[in-house]
Amino acid sequence: MASYDHNHNNNHIHHHTHLNGDSFSPLSKKLKLSSSSFITHSEIQSEFSHHDSSVARINNGSFGCCPASVISAQHEWQLQYLRQPDHFYFNQLHKGILQSRTIIKQLVNAEHLDEISIVDNVSTAAAIVLQQSAWAFQEGRFQKGDVVVMLHYAYGSVKKSIEAYVVRAGGQVIEAHLPFPLSSNDEIVSEFRKALERGKADGHRVRLAVIDHVTSMPSVVIPVKELVKICREEGVDQVFVDAAHAIGCTDVDMKEIGADFYTSNLHKWFFCPPSIAFLYSRKSSPQSDLHHPVVSHEYGNGLAIESSWIGTRDYSSQLVVPAALEFVNRFEGGIEGIKKRNHDAVVEMGQMLAEAWGTHLGTPPHMCASLIMVGLPACLGIKSDSDAMKLRTHLRDNLGVEVPIYYRPPQDGEVGCVTGYARISHQVYNKVDDYYKFRDAVNKLVREGLQLLVVKEVLLNRMNKSDGSVVASESG
């Protein structure tokens, strides 16, 4: 079993962990750091010195971040494999993945270790769950026309997976159309109930509900516990929570949430390198039908074992969870402290931007985690998804700002409304200057746009006057 011995600048921490099946308890052995030993600002900057310093990187939500100490741990795993692959496979790989699974189990408060499998990403987890639903249609356990309910905000690749697995097998999809901006969880609950009612019309059964925990675009924290409870009351067979952003970003507790399946990436908000996610499958739910979509010689040995070997590949990202936990525990309050500080900071920066631009936030603070939606000035003229992507590209390529832009179509009767929103993130490496740079870049675009508009109007007036004088002389 490998031990981890990382140098964190001036903080030298030697953290031993031992495997003992389900009794392994890494979280009960958190690093005991005094207040003077917590990570410093300069150490944080050193951990992320590989980031491009010319870019205001306020899009942690898309790809996450990985500190240098975790990259170093990953590199050591890679070297161990390359030195002697057979030794690595037979003596280290499975133990290392077991250790990572055990840490994840405790992080998310799962009841049993065998409820936790490690997969590449949430897209893989979605394929595993939806593949099971497709087989149920094909084998006659579900009837043609039975329903999957999902949120209108569901991530695009998950929607495509539902199309590929469920619709193709004979199921139909009902979307809960959520408004945006949002002011309360009641709006979400009301629309979700309506979607379940539509799903049960004409005698159909809702076989699966796919619920986001933190939606991607627009970004909103969904009241998953309440929606899962509603699903149980309404007789929904299974509930799958797509929580790509959740772990390290908002509260995650399997026993409290109560879903049948729950998945989250560790490379977004838990400082792991890409790509690693966990898939929780509740032990009381049928697990025998869950299989990794890549079939290996471990097929039939349970999803966790199947997922731990899908052929020769780089497994190092799945082995550095102990190093990521070690990094997290260098911060005051550990992951809970990081989540709170990120939330408070992103709200503060979102409010600063909205005030600077004369706009508003897309949700109240309690409905966001470490990401928040900020309205952009209407004069930017975002009138389509294509406009949103063009603005995002211009900000990246010409103004040194990386941030996703969301297009929100105007509703019936709306005039002059905000149709463009920026999704800003906050992670430990971010500085206030990142958000000031974004603010100033948008203000520059607004000024240039208004100047261009003024120039166009002047030229148009001149042309009209010129045309008018010509007409007058000719008619005289």
Automatic annotation (TrEMBL):
Residue spans of biased composition, Basic residues class: 9-18
SUPFAM superfamilies cross-referenced by the UniProt entry: PLP-dependent transferases
Key words of the record: Pyridoxal phosphate
Keyword Disulfide bond: no
Region (Disordered): 1-21
Domain Aminotransferase class V span(s) in chain numbering: 86-286
UniProt cross-references to InterPro entries, sorted A to Z: Aminotrans_V_dom, PyrdxlP-dep_Trfase, PyrdxlP-dep_Trfase_major
Gene3D superfamilies per UniProt: Type I PLP-dependent aspartate aminotransferase-like (Major domain)
Domain of life: Eukaryota
Pfam families in alphabetical order: Aminotran_5
Annotated protein name in UniProt: Putative L-cysteine desulfhydrase, chloroplastic
